[in-house]
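Project outcomes to date are best conveyed with an example. Our students and postdoctoral researchers have been running inverse folding experiments weekly, and each run begins with a structure described purely in tokens. The record below, which covers 399 residues, was selected by the lab manager from last quarter's runs and is presented without edits.
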């Protein structure tokens, strides 16, 4: 049996037909669906390119294929290829396929409309909240209020109509987007941390010597990660006399603006933008060299970057959005878009080594909830429930 999975990842295809990803999920991510299905078809935007860089990783492989949707970036480009996108998405799944829509997603919504029109089943993996992702502080566009209202309403409808729903959060997304009563519901994160992702023991108290190193991780394709807020907080910290530097991992269209902002704030000598790093050991080396992880996001589901930092025993300060309060205690949280509050939260943590040591131990313990051996059985059970819905027409209860 084949499973068709939609998402908002953007991939590249080289002339030999191979499909590649730089920041999005790669082949190992999609193989998790093979625990219950024989084949995986990933439906995503694909851009044809002459070649890819050394940091690109394969997406397709044995039993995993990519169904290429015409490439677009942003509402304006989407309108130019709208009809081709709809035709491609509608043809991506056959009636006998199991369909899983990773939402919020325009591509997922298009396929949901097709399945509903023909009374065909589909399931959801709810990985984010359009109300946050499309908030005015996360996205600046004159039509944004309309987009936000439409996507939020449509996702509520999808959760009530879907044959099964999984969530990446324990409570947050469920409260806003409840599933249909009696339908199979599960909770598991998209994160799949292997054993070597975890530090063996929590960090001990470090003596204060040299520049304190903050680290943040996240795409710079859109402003929703709040790195501009972090740069403003860094400026406040520097003016208060703290010797603090920042390393950021991630890249995107907004990087030049952030580099310009760092120069305007006179903290460019304290900031290093490393760009995109291969996942795994290169990122872990940077995390291990840091003193404090900062996640100033304006919108989140359940952030992988934060959990990976917690698995390295890093103390963390983050914003009170999405599922983050399920990861960190309230004393480690600050409001989004508030540089003084973020600076105060960082200062409070850095000036109390015992507090940092306690946060390290607490975060490492919490991160172990997202180990592969913990999440995989829960996820596999959900996928097998979906398979039975399509194969047998049964309606199993919550998993």
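After processing, the design step wrote out the following sequence:
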């Amino acid at each position: 049996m084949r499973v068709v999975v939609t998402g908002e990842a953007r991939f590249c295809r080289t002339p030999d037909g191979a499909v590649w990803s730089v920041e999005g999920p790669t082949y190992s991510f999609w193989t998790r669906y093979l625990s219950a299905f024989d084949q995986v078809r990933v439906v995503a935007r694909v851009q044809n390119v002459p070649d890819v860089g050394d940091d690109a990783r394969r997406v397709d492989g044995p039993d995993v294929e990519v169904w290429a949707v015409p490439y677009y970036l942003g509402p304006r480009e989407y309108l130019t290829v709208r009809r081709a996108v709809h035709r491609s998405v509608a043809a991506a799944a056959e009636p006998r396929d199991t369909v899983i829509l990773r939402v919020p997603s325009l591509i997922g919504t298009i396929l949901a409309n097709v399945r509903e029109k023909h009374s065909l089943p589909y399931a959801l993996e709810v990985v984010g909240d359009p109300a946050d992702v499309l908030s005015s502080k996360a996205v600046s566009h004159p039509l944004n209020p309309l987009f936000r209202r439409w996507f939020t309403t449509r996702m509520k409808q999808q959760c009530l109509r879907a044959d099964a729903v999984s969530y990446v959060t324990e409570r947050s997304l469920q409260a806003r987007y409840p599933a249909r009563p009696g339908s199979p519901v599960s909770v598991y994160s998209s994160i799949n941390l292997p054993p070597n992702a975890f530090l063996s023991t929590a960090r001990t108290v470090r003596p204060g010597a040299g520049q304190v190193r903050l680290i943040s991780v996240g795409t710079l394709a859109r402003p929703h990660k709040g790195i501009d807020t972090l740069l403003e907080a860094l400026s406040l910290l520097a003016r208060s006399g703290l010797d603090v530097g920042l390393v950021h991992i991630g890249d995107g269209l907004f990087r030049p603006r952030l580099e310009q902002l760092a120069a305007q704030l006179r903290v460019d000598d304290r900031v290093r933008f490393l760009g995109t790093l291969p996942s795994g050991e290169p990122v872990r080396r940077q995390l291990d060299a840091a003193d404090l992880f900062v996640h100033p996001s304006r919108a989140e589901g359940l952030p992988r970057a934060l959990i990976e930092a917690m698995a390295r025993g890093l103390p963390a300060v983050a914003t009170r959005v999405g599922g983050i309060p399920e990861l960190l205690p309230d004393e480690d949280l600050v409001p989004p878009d508030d540089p003084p509050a973020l600076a105060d939260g960082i200062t409070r943590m850095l000036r109390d080594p015992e507090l940092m040591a306690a946060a390290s131990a607490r975060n490492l313990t919490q991160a172990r909830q997202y180990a592969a051996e913990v999440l995989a059985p829960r996820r596999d059970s959900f996928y097998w429930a979906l398979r039975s819905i399509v194969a047998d027409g049964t309606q199993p209860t919550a998993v």
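The domain at 195-369 is CATH 3.40.50.2000 (Rossmann fold). The first strand starts at residue 2 and ends at 13. The training component of this project remains on track.
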